[in-house]
Fold this sequence. Notes:
- The complex is a heterodimer.
- By secondary structure, chain A is an all-alpha fold.
- Chain A has six helices and no strands.
- In chain B, helix 1 (3-24) runs antiparallel to helix 2 and helix 2 (28-53) packs antiparallel against helix 3.
Amino acid sequence: MADLIVLVLLGAVSVASALGLLLSRNAIYAALFLVLNFGVGAVIYLLLNAPFLAVVQVSVYAGAIMVLFLFVIMLLGAERLSPAEDPPGASFQRPLAIGLGAALLGLAAYVLFIRQPAAIAPATPIDSSPTAVGLALFGDYLFPFEVISVLLLVAMIGAVILTRDR
Amino acid sequence: MDTTAFVALLSSVLFTIGVLGVLLRRSALLIFMSVELMLNAANLAFVSFAHRWNQLDGQVIVFFVMAVAAAEVAVGLALIVTIFRTKRSTNVDELSALRG
């Protein structure tokens, strides 16, 4: 029960920061809202018995990825979004997008809540320490792990070639 | 409402906000951040169901999603920087030509 109360508070902060990202007029503020959202996500991971993912979330998502975002925003000087945000002739897009979003949310809620789970989970909590996650990564998931390393190398080479001065 | 149901609901709400961000915003950077929000919402659902069913596999999948997201951000931001050099803008409405 205490878990649920903490989760509701965290969820409120998470949804508020996501809405801040959606409505912000300044790209820097939007990026900082997203950092807050990722931080809250890390705390939720801790509550859900995933300490390894919580640390990876903070260091990779809130750290590396968002620093890259902020770096690019400041490099381009593209933080002001207001003048070009509302082009004429696109007034039908906003209500259409909101309607489609509501439909998506309704569908997701239907799939998640109307259909009951088929069986009850085993009651014994598993070991989800970084050691256990590492054993799974280098055991059952060794091949995807190696593929991911190649993917990261290709992405790095691609980014360098794309932004090279010709 | 138990923990899993609440996190699943939170995940679907965050995913919807991400979709709305992609549909409503005009800046390529903001669209990209909304995609990250959607990935994060999916990760939340994975971790929540891994917790519910006492399986480690959901957490491993989230680790892979994070690695793919990092690769995607590196390439995507490089593309945005390259487009900005020629177009002087990150507004997706102005990107209507296939040639640079």
